[in-house]
Design a protein that fits this description.
The complex is a heterodimer of chains A (about 190) and B (about 110). Chain A is an all-alpha fold and about 190 residues long. Chain A folds into 2 domains: about 110 residues, Rna Polymerase Sigma Factor, Chain: A; about 80 residues, Arc Repressor Mutant, subunit A, CATH 1.10.10.10. Chain A is about 75% helix and about 0% strand. In chain A, helix 6 crosses helix 9 and helix 8 packs across helix 9. The radius of gyration of chain A is 18 Å and the shape is globular. Chain B is mostly helical. Chain B has one domain. The longest helix of chain B is centred in the middle third of the chain and has 44 residues. Chain B is rod-shaped. Classes of the chains: A mainly alpha (about 190), B mainly alpha (about 110). Chains A and B meet through helix 2, helix 3, helix 6, helix 7 and helix 9 of A and helix 1 and helix 2 of B.
């Protein structure tokens, strides 16, 4: 089935086409959301919101980009909005900040051996914390490139930027990450 | 000191290397079913008028119109009520001072009788 036919079927409200859209993209959208949110439950909730929005606004999709690119864009916006809302909540509920900070972060197991796994998990936590503190454009570019293994060109398409701009963003992001990680270890 | 710096450098490098080794997660079982359930729930909820700026402006424009229409209707009904009270007062005066006259059909009936 060509992309155009598929889009037409989606726009006509074909449930089979919608199911196909979800099943083909759910893992990458959940994974992208996870890259920003670092919590599987939140990532799945936001990924579901992405598909709900896609379902409700598919009539606006003109097929100028790949449908996956369109979904990634929605996923990035929704994840960043979710982070913004969470931050606002943290400010309002400043008294509960300690409890919220202690909320369990779900980091999938990456261990080869138990000991090296623990070190790896700790390093991963440091990396993720550093990622969260990056400026949002750098965070988006690195998350899409590293979590989703998208090429620089694909990241550029999703972010609506030029290839050179994305290259610069990722390079600057890596330098910033290195500084933040270095500061973290120096403070230990 | 030099040793400590070396350790930090290697830790930084190992942490940065994880950028290329991010663990991947997958949607859990039943993702689509949960999604369709949420969609069905959303569809069963009646949609409300979107709160776009144009609606806000319209709301501001409509509110004074409705309020003034209400005042106008209120005043109109009030005047109507006042007129009936005047009529009622006249009737009382006529009855009190014996100024009543038979109505026209009664008058004709009286003559024919």
């Amino acid at each position: 089935m060509s992309d155009l036919n598929f889009i037409k079927q989606l726009q006509a409200g074909d449930p089979v086409a919608f199911r196909q859209l979800v099943e083909e993209n759910q893992d990458r959208i959940v994974n992208t959301c996870f890259g920003f949110l670092q919590n599987q439950q939140d990532a799945e909730d936001i990924a579901q919101n992405v598909f709900i929005e896609a379902y409700q606004s598919i009539y606006r999709f003109r097929g100028e980009s790949k449908i996956s690119t369109w979904l990634y864009r929605i996923a990035v916006n929704k994840s960043l909005n979710h982070i913004k809302i969470q931050k606002r909540r943290h400010i309002i509920q400043s008294l509960e900040a300690i409890i919220l900070d202690n909320r369990e972060k779900e980091i999938p197991a990456v261990s080869d051996t138990p000991e090296s796994g623990l070190e790896k998990t700790e390093r991963l936590t440091v990396l993720q914390k550093a990622m969260q503190s990056l400026p949002s454009n750098q965070k988006i570019a690195i998350t899409l490139n590293k979590y989703e293994e998208l090429s620089y060109q694909e990241v550029a398409n999703i972010m609506g930027l030029s290839l050179s701009a994305v290259t610069a963003l990722i390079n600057r992001g890596k330098v910033n990450l290195q500084k933040k990680i270095s500061n973290f270890y120096k403070k230990l | 000191m030099k040793n400590k710096n070396l350790n930090i450098e290697s830790e930084i490098q190992k942490t940065m290397d994880l950028l290329d080794d991010f663990p991947k997660i997958q949607a859990r079982y039943g993702f689509y079913d949960r999604l369709t359930y949420r969609l069905e729930q959303k569809e069963s909820v009646p949609t409300t008028m979107p709160s776009k700026p144009i609606w806000k402006l319209l709301r501001y424009a409509i509110t004074p119109t409705v309020v003034s229409a209400g005042i106008f209707i209120g005043v109109f009904i009030g005047l109507g009520e006042q007129t009936t009270t005047v009529d009622a007062n006249l009737e009382t005066l006529i009855e009190t001072y014996g100024l009543s006259v038979p109505s026209v059909p009664n008058y004709f009936n009286a003559e024919t009788n």
